[in-house]
Design brief:
Blueprint lengths: L2 H10 L6 H8 L18 E6 L2 E8 L4 E4 L15 E4 L11 E4 H15 L12 H11 E2 L12 E2 H13 L4 H4 L12 H13 L7 H19 L11 H13 L2 E5 L2 E5 L12 H33 L4 E2 L9 E4 L12 E4 L2 E4 L12 E4 L12 E2 H4 L10 H21 L11 H5 L1
Parallel strand pairs: 6-7, 10-15
Antiparallel strand pairs: 1-2, 2-3, 4-5, 8-9, 11-14, 12-13, 12-14
């Protein structure tokens, strides 16, 4: 049986519900054909040695014996999340036309939707994340006593709970499905070290200058990032913070450290070993980072409590203060979620931003009502200035104000994670002061 037909049979017969089957196709599992510890589950895949040649077999419930799985490479698991297959309409629940999809999407759809909704299940042929699931559930969820209960286009609360529980079970597959480190992420490539040494030689005598060191690191990180994006780890394990903060010091250069008031240039990376002549700089940086992290966390926590005490008597009132002032801004796609539930002022009229109309304002210059411009007395705010997303509790202003302290703490902690990397930015002073 071909792998594609094998997967159709698995879905149609519900074999994907068995943990043993999932493990058997996503990894290599040992199976003793002569003395098995337990009977195989239907369609369980096993790799067998046939006269010195390894082949993939699967347990055929119709034959009650193992049969060969055609087209499966014995050097790899039967199916990997990124493997593509094309299925015809009706072969898989939810697929209404010939569809090219991946094994990962097929498995997630099967576990979350097919198992519970059967033929009523949708098929999501794309990234399945929280927002996608929320949209599906928002459109379909119906109360048990609702007039829509039993309608194929809807799902009950009980079905929703089962879908969610099934989804949580997928978390256990992360070690098999999520790409992590590969050999290329465990040591620096030779060309990067050669480029580093060349840049250091060209700028000898100027390496104490943060601008020069920042330029060198920027050049190295650009080349190193391009190299890492060609490796198997690019899909998940490698992201900006890993490269800029961790790999920079680990594999490229120690950069500039401060020891007893002086800047010390550490050219070698940690991978190449410590430069013992500059050991005080290593120690001083470690002590400083450890202390600053604790001190900044404590300071941020103290500011949160202070802001809560200062704002705990501020209330959100139902009446409209009638202000025509607000915060002018451009509502970019990135800000869409943040301002959902806020009120914007247009021609003196306040309009509530909801899912039905917010997209009309994306990309537009708008004036958003804010508690800072509310006309109510005693520091209170009306729900129109606070926004419906903040007004479900009339004492929620304290919660919003406490975010300021949390943000300060987060910024302090982020600065410690930058390590030895120096970030260069262009700043136009004429624009700033004019």
């Amino acid at each position: 049986m071909l792998i594609r037909d094998y997967l159709v049979a698995v879905i149609q017969n519900g074999a994907y519900k068995e943990r043993s089957w999932v493990l058997s196709v996503l990894s290599f599992t040992a199976y003793n054909f002569k003395h098995p510890l337990k009977p195989p589950v239907p369609y369980q895949a096993v790799r067998k040695d046939e006269k010195g040649t390894k082949v993939w077999m699967y347990y055929n419930p119709a034959l009650q014996d193992f049969d060969e799985l055609e087209g499966a490479d014995p050097n790899f698991p039967v199916a990997r999340p990124e493997d593509h297959y094309t299925f015809k309409a009706g072969e898989i629940p939810g697929i209404t036309e010939d569809t090219d999809t991946t094994f990962g999407r097929l498995l997630v759809n099967a576990v979350i939707f097919f198992d519970v909704l059967k033929e009523r299940a949708p098929y999501i042929n794309g990234e399945i994340n929280r927002k996608v699931l929320e949209k599906i559930y928002d459109q379909r969820l119906a109360d048990g006593a609702s007039e829509h209960a039993g309608d194929p286009k809807y799902l009950t609360v009980d079905e929703f709970k089962r879908c969610m529980n099934n989804g949580f079970s997928l978390g256990g597959l992360s070690p098999l499905c999520v790409p992590t480190a590969c050999p290329e992420t465990m040591y620096p490539p030779k060309f990067i070290i050669e480029l580093r040494d060349k840049l250091f030689a060209e700028n000898q005598g100027k390496l104490n200058d943060p601008a020069v060191m920042g330029m060198i690191q920027q050049t190295l990180l650009k080349e190193y990032r391009a190299y890492l994006m060609t490796t198997p780890s690019k899909k998940f394990f490698i992201f900006a913070k890993t490269i800029d903060d961790s790999f920079n010091k680990m594999f490229l250069t120690g950069g500039i450290e401060t020891a007893f008031g002086n800047n010390v240039v550490i050219q070698k990376s940690l991978y190449e070993g410590w430069d013992l002549k500059k050991f005080p700089a290593y120690v001083n940086k470690s002590v400083s980072a450890s202390f600053d992290r604790g001190a900044s966390t404590a300071d941020g926590g103290e500011k949160v409590k202070m802001l809560i005490r200062a704002t705990q008597n501020i209330l959100i009132q139902d009446e409209d203060c009638g202000t025509t002032l607000g915060v002018p801004l451009t509502l970019t796609p990135a800000l869409r979620h943040r301002y959902l539930g806020a009120y914007v002022i247009a021609d003196g009229v306040s309009t509530h931003l909801d899912q039905d109309n917010i997209d009309r304002y994306v990309g537009q210059d708008v004036v958003v009502r804010s508690p800072a411009f509310c006309k109510l007395s005693h520091g209170d705010s009306c729900k129109y200035c606070a926004g419906s997303h903040n007004s479900t509790n009339n004492k929620s202003m304290s919660s919003g104000a406490s975010k300021i302290g949390s943000k300060l703490m987060l910024l302090s902690m982020k600065s410690m994670h930058k390590g030895s990397r120096i970030t260069l930015v262009d700043y136009d002073l004429d624009e700033a002061f004019n």
